[in-house]
Write a structure and sequence with these properties.
By secondary structure, the chain is of the alpha+beta class. The chain contains three helices and two strands. The N and C termini lie far apart (39 Å).
Length: 90
């Protein structure tokens, strides 16, 4: 079975999502609340999955969002909804 994260369609979709992003899909802010841009440069360099792939989330456009590196790494494999329901870490 081939890895769905290595194909050309995935790379194109990832580039389009990251290029179109204006706010982070996790924190809903343009400036990173964790590092104020010192670490991630306020760039949307990570493609986050709303429902983590380790928990059965699909590798599809409806499950993907642009995110700051810091936000995505702090989120881990938790779902976006789970993070917002428990507490805002920022």
């Amino acid at each position: 079975m081939t890895n769905p994260l290595k194909g050309r369609p995935y790379r194109r979709r990832r580039a389009a999502i990251l290029a179109a992003a204006t706010v982070c899909g996790i924190c809903s802010q343009a400036q990173c609340p964790h590092c104020a841009g010192d670490v991630c440069g306020n760039r949307f360099g990570h493609l986050d999955h709303n429902i983590a792939r380790s928990k059965g989330g699909a590798v599809a456009a409806h499950n993907e969002q642009a995110a700051h590196q810091c936000c995505n790494l702090k989120k881990g494999n938790r779902d976006t909804v789970e993070i917002l329901q428990t507490s805002r870490p920022w």
